[in-house]
């Protein structure tokens, strides 16, 4: 067991002291937690040695209940799905007032068995009740999340009677939605509309995280500083990201990219976000209808709010954020054919007489090349 109090460099926002609990502190669990702690200013960590996984899954709540120190300034409890959170909260009532976040490295609902009736459902049951007790769920992949949600009913069917209903609907909204707004911080990008929608989501207790990116200026509209205060708990990135690599990582970690622009002739940042896997929501005006299919368009502020609201509450009967990166990739591929070629490419003749599409604009920029075959775009999509 390890029980330490740490102090690292300042975290991006003041979330108060965090209590980290890990029942199996080894392998990927240890690596993940160690990396996470590097970004936290003040924390307490309580861990158990990585041995006898099955016993840890069954009994760690009881063990940890006596090792976790009394709560003082902690506001957040962060744990992996190995511990039965419902049991831990039942034994340690003082933890119930914390914001409870559970991270899923894996789920036990789809662990391979020859016959489902032979499954020891204790581990799956533990994870289901842990989800019900948590405030926020984080899965390390869409497959992990969706395989968990889809198989709750098959586990509950094994109960002899008094089978609870609609557990999936209770758990699915706890999966957090991540939103990115990657635009210049000026009035023509209409940040006011974007923040009004986010304020409504928050007022209705919808869970989301947001990255507000883009080029910033000394005289940026005051709405940004106001939003930073009102959305302090939701903002995970705020301002211009110097590193292009880090910028793409933020785009790739977001479920939805939003544009609220009143002035746009192409929208490169939205194309970048789409390529990185974010599902685009854009106004049904300006250049956007030329580029994006109707599923990505909204006409009014109310429609944008409704679309985002649905994404924070929907179940797997509709397309969820977890599967949208695949849809976004298809959109990006469509964009590459419908937009890139029309902008950059023209008919031409190859050296062997075959007709090929060439890039007149790019060939001017790179004059040493006779032509640029548009098949090279495929590496970007």
Describe the structure.
It is a single chain. 38% of the residues lie in helices and 19% in strands. It is built from 15 helices and 14 strands. It is globular, with a radius of gyration of 24 Å. It starts with a strand and ends in a 16-residue tail after the last helix.
What structural category characterises the helix and strand content?
A: alpha/beta
Main sheet, how many strands, which sense, barrel? 6 strands, mixed
Q: Which sequence of strands runs across the widest sheet?
A: 1-3-2-4-5-6
State the shape.
globular
Q: Which stretches of 5+ consecutive residues score pLDDT under 50? A: 1-15, 315-326, 334-381
> Over all CA atoms, what is the radius of gyration?
24 Å
* Helix share, percent: 25-40%
Q: Overall mean pLDDT score? A: 78
N-to-C series of helices and strands:
EEHEHEHEHEHHHEHEHEHEHEHEHHEEH
Count of individual helical segments: 15
Count of beta strands: 14
Bin the strand percentage: 15-25%
- Terminal Cα separation, in Å? 47 Å
What's this model, at a glance?
With 381 residues, the chain is α/β, with parallel strands linked by helices. Helix content is 38%, strand content 19%.
Core attributes:
381 residues; alpha/beta; six-stranded mixed β-sheet; globular
Set out the fold topology.
Blueprint: E1 2-7, E2 17-22, H1 27-37, E3 42-47, H2 53-67, E4 74-80, H3 85-91, E5 99-104, H4 122-133, E6 136-139, H5 142-150, H6 152-156, H7 167-171, E7 177-182, H8 191-203, E8 208-213, H9 223-230, E9 235-238, H10 244-252, E10 256-258, H11 268-275, E11 279-283, H12 288-291, E12 297-298, H13 301-313, H14 324-344, E13 345-349, E14 355-359, H15 360-365
Parallel strand pairs: 2-3, 2-4, 4-5, 5-6, 7-8, 7-10, 8-9, 10-11, 11-12
Antiparallel strand pairs: 1-3, 13-14
């Amino acid at each position: 067991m390890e029980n330490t109090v740490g102090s690292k460099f300042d975290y991006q926002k003041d979330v108060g002291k965090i209590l980290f609990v890990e029942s199996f502190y080894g392998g990927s669990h240890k690596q993940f937690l160690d990396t996470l702690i590097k970004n936290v200013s003040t924390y307490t960590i309580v861990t158990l040695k990585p041995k006898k996984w099955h016993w840890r899954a069954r009994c760690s709540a009881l063990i940890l209940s006596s090792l976790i120190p009394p709560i003082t300034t902690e506001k957040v409890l962060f744990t992996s799905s190995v511990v039965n959170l419902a049991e831990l909260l039942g034994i340690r009532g003082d933890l119930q007032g914390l914001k409870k976040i559970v991270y899923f490295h894996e789920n036990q609902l789809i662990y391979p068995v020859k016959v489902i009736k032979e499954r020891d459902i204790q581990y799956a049951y533990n994870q289901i009740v842990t989800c019900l007790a948590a405030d926020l769920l984080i899965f390390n992949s869409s497959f992990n999340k969706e395989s968990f949600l889809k198989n709750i009913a098959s586990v509950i069917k094994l109960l002899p009677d008094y089978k609870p209903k609609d557990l999936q609907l209770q758990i699915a909204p706890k999966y957090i939605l991540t939103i990115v707004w990657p635009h210049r911080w000026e009035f023509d990008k209409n940040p006011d509309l974007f923040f009004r929608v986010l304020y409504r989501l928050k007022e209705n207790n919808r869970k989301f995280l947001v990255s507000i990116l883009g080029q910033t200026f000394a005289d940026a509209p005051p709405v940004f500083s106001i939003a930073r205060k009102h959305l302090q708990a939701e903002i995970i990135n705020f301002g211009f990201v110097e590193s292009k690599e880090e910028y793409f990582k933020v785009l790739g970690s977001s479920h939805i990219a939003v544009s609220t622009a009143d002035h746009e002739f192409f929208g490169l940042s939205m194309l970048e976000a789409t390529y990185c896997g974010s599902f685009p929501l854009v106004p049904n005006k300006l250049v956007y209808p030329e580029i994006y299919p109707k599923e990505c368009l909204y006409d009014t502020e109310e429609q944008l709010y409704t679309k985002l609201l649905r994404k924070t509450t929907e179940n797997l009967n509709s397309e969820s954020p977890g599967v949208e990166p695949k849809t976004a990739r298809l959109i990006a591929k469509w964009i590459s054919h419908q937009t890139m070629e029309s902008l950059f490419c023209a008919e031409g003749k190859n050296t062997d007489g075959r007709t090929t599409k060439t890039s007149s604009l790019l060939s001017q920029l790179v004059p040493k090349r006779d032509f640029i075959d548009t098949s090279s775009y495929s590496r970007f999509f």
